[in-house]
Every structure is written in C-alpha cells, then in structure tokens.
C-alpha cells in the first residue's frame, strides 16, 4: 500500500521522541514517578475511515488488552483513539512504546498524533 497520509519522509524524520521527555517532566510534576505504571491514552490521525477501521482491527487482534478504541471525525481527518495497558512512566519505556506505535501506524497509513496519561 502506498501511504498517502503518513508518507515515508514523515515516518523517517518526524517521530520526535524528544517530546516524550517534556511530557514526562509535566507528568512527574503532578506527582507521578518514573516507576509508576499508568495506561496511556493515544491518538492516531488518518484521512479515510477505511484506514482507521483497519488500524482498529489490528489493535483488537494484536493488542486485546487495549481499551476504549474509538474512531471519530477530527478537523477534516479521522482520529483513532484508545487506551493502552499500564506502561512504566520512564523515558526508555515510553520511547519504546512510542516507536512501536509509530511503526504500527505507518503500516496502516495512520500517524501517531500524541499520547497522554491521566494523573491524580
């Protein structure tokens, strides 16, 4: 499949893992520690509902413990959102998860647009 939304150049150059350090710093300021395990809410964007449905099906088959999978219209794009299993809130673990999601999204022409956790 030729990616028309999440192209190869973007895939190869825009993962921006350095942003994770800033996000974690904000999370830590809310009292979360780097050993806490929290579910991660994630957001993918794409341009067709078909691609979103294919990614959602992949999650259902390969990540059955991920929850709250939804497909929504989002400013002219299609958003796929969900919640991961609890992940350790340290930079290495988050970066590994981020890379896995970035690669997975590319397979379905869906770009990982962001992630967040709910702090107490």
Automatic annotation (TrEMBL):
Pfam families named in the record: RraB
Source species: Mucilaginibacter terrae
Domain of life (superkingdom): Bacteria
Coiled coil: none
Name this polypeptide is given: Regulator of ribonuclease activity B domain-containing protein
Segments forming domain Regulator of ribonuclease activity B: 18-116
